[in-house]
Structure formats: C-alpha cells, structure tokens
C-alpha cells in the first residue's frame, strides 16, 4: 500500500509538470491550430539561462523571476519575428516552421552550453517532508505547479486582459470588431506559454539532469496529456496532465517497467485518437460552411 501511495504522489508530481507544458501546447494550438513542436526546446533554453545565472552565484529565488521574464520576452519574440509572418501560410508550412524552430533551438543549446550532462540544483535539496511517501522536491513541484496554474485560471477567468486573450484566440475576427488588438493578445499568449514551458523545465531538470535532449521525452508526455484532456480545452490539459502522470507512473511500476514509458505515452495518443479524438474534456470542432 505504501508503494502504491508513493507512486501515486510521484505521478501527481510528474503530472503537474506535464500539465504545465500541456497547457502551453494547448494555448498555442488554440491560436495557430498546430502543435508547437519547439515548445520543449524553448523551455530548454530558459532552463539553460537559469543554470547560467545560478552558476555565476545568483540565488535561486532571484534567478526564478529573472528567468520567467526572459522566457516571456523570448516567447513574444518568437511570435513577433517568426510565427506572425506565417499566420496566413498553408498548414504544412507552419508545421515545417515549428520543426525548424525545434532543430534550431536544440542545436543552439548544444552549441552554446555543450552536450555534457549538468546538474541542476533544487531549491529544496537536502530538505525533508517528514514523510516517506513524498520527497521534498516532489512536494515543491506540486505546490509551484498548482500555484502557477491557479494564477493563470484567475487571470483568464476574471481579468479583462485574460478575457481579451481568450476572445482573440477563440474568434479573432469578432475580437477585432470589438476593439481587441488581436496580434498583441496572441503575442502575450506566446509569452505566457514560454513561462509555462520554462517552469516545467526548471522543475524537471533537478530530476533528469540538464542536457540538450532533456525536454524531448517530457514534450511527448505533455503532448499525450494534452491529447488525453483535449487540445482545445485548457482545463482538460491540466486534468490530462495529472491523470497521465499517475497512470504513467503506476503502469511503469506495476505493468510495463520504466523502459517502456515512452511507448505507453504513444499508446495513449493512439488510443485517444481512435476512441475519442477530442479528448476526455475537449469539444468537437464546428465550422460554418
């Protein structure tokens, strides 16, 4: 029973990371209609920036907000300098752009910081929760992720700027008619997605260590979580991340072993596409003809 509780809590911790990155994927999907394959590599670059600041001696809680600001600016820059130029391009062209950004960002990380594995410190390293069921870092991940997701929920639900961003993503033409500056709202969405991805990178790096391929598997897990919850449902992405994190951990412990976790993620994606393409909480797309 103790093992089951340990793995469930560890799965919630992993799921909170997947939920943050899945929410970033859903935010970009709702504005472009495509999966941002470079989302993990954007998070990777932000994590390397944080590691650099820590390496020169800045404290973690000073590095964290600096990195968040840098991630936001970087996300906005990607939209303004690259994505905006292809907003009316054919769908295949945008897919190629996302894949190109993935390769460019990954190569840049390796070129600047090298391909050696680096240790990334946890701000709660060496601390104890007083319980054998959950470690200090896992508890830290859960608290930080849920706090961030709670802030975003309040922002999008109860603030004028958040409502304007939702309107711009849902129906750009109607949003323009009521005076919303759609391009600016979409750029802000990219900035927030950059923050979400970078938080996921900072939280997973102390567990997996820091190297250029670190976010590849995490992005796949987040994609599976987004598919499970529904690509057009932000709340579904969060729920899907938590559900997938627990299922993945329990399956790895009791059924398939840790070596087949990536296969489990692919199996989840295929199963959802076959049985419920819109995800557990997604809504079917409706188009006027």
TrEMBL record:
Pfam families: BPD_transp_2
Membrane topology: Multi-pass membrane protein
TM region(s), chain numbering: 12-30, 42-60, 92-113, 139-164, 185-207, 262-281
Record key words, sorted: Amino-acid transport, Cell membrane, Membrane, Transmembrane, Transmembrane helix, Transport
Protein localization: Cell membrane
Highest taxon above the source species: Bacteria
UniProt family annotation: Belongs to the binding-protein-dependent transport system permease family. LivHM subfamily.
Name of this chain's protein: Branched-chain amino acid ABC transporter permease
